[in-house]
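hiii, so i know i said id send this last week but things got crazy w the move. better late than never?? heres the sequnce for the chain we talked about at the cafe, plus the structure i predicted for it. fair warning i was half asleep when i ran it
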Amino acid sequence: MRILHTSDWHLGRAFHRVNMLGAQSAFIGHLVATVREHDVDAVVVSGDVYDRAVPPLAAVELFDDALHRLADLGVPTLMISGNHDSARRLGVGAGLIGRAGIHLRTDPAGCATPVLLSDAHGEVAFYGLPYLEPALVKAEFGVDRAGHEAVLAAAMDRVRADLATRAPGTRSVVLAHAFVTGGEPSDSERDITVGGVAAVPSGVFDGVDYVALGHLHGCQAITDRVRYSGSPLPYSFSEAGHRKSMWLVDLSADGSVGAERVDCPVPRPLARLRGTLEELLADPELARHEEAWVEATLTDPVRPADPMARLTERFPHTLSLVFDPERAPDDPAVSYARRLAGRSEQQIAEDFVTHVRGAGPDDHERAVLRDAFDAVRAEETAREVAR
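okay and structure toks below
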């Protein structure tokens, strides 16, 4: 069975000030063409269909167009909700839409109810695990403490239990939206840390033939059987080194997996340039970036006059301008933001406690801080779901 694995469309999201709906529409066209060209048997979309719980009307219209075009193909499509989606909104009309071959899986309680597809070698069971916000689903899965690993493990126990009731030789595919250990993140994914831990081990998914992951925006393989497709378009300059693509997965009769990447059309390349303003304007090696979307980091010791206007004369698609004067690490002028770069909320809070009282928090106090951050994230998620 040939499966096209994609995720993280983020319909409605802009790239800095650039409206991406045109590029997102072009991607949908490319997806449909890929299904036809490569004789795809099933399409899987592993979450973050929309960029926010209440998407703009234009994004909803594009999703509606995508549903119609996918249904017209006559190729089954499975979609799960991600942490950016409103599961309830995305899942409206799922039963009716399913009759057209578009299977929406947004209810955690249904994670062990597969969509069964067949090929010449028998059945393949597709299980959709929507994004599982631990604080909201721990009761459903009977776990004592909310945590990503605990709820995912419980969901996968249900999947394996159902799979055990299927005919011998039934192959299996799981769609999931999570941060799996070993994955390489970028700046454009929303933090899903709970209990101080964001990632879950890939071993949680043992026992199935292929795991189609969403959430991280870089296309990557955690193992041969556990892969992220990544986002089809860039959504931050941290993705400048990404090759935007989808996975074309061949699931053999014995459950072995072969996969190749299918590139996605990107409207412009990304470039992250660093140097003094005069260096960026004069360096002939940078000519290849003149039509790219540019993030320029200026290292001038004194902020130059009209830097954006001067940069856009050479790089007309400059979208981000950062000032980072080169100074010694112990220079008091080093910015607060720079000192905090790469540190988690938990680490920043613990550093503050240490600064205020001269001693860091003990284990109990760390747990209190961790629970407080988890409670805020859970409240924010619940508020979005309720909108």
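btw Residues 270-326 form one domain. thought thatd interest u
miss u guys!!
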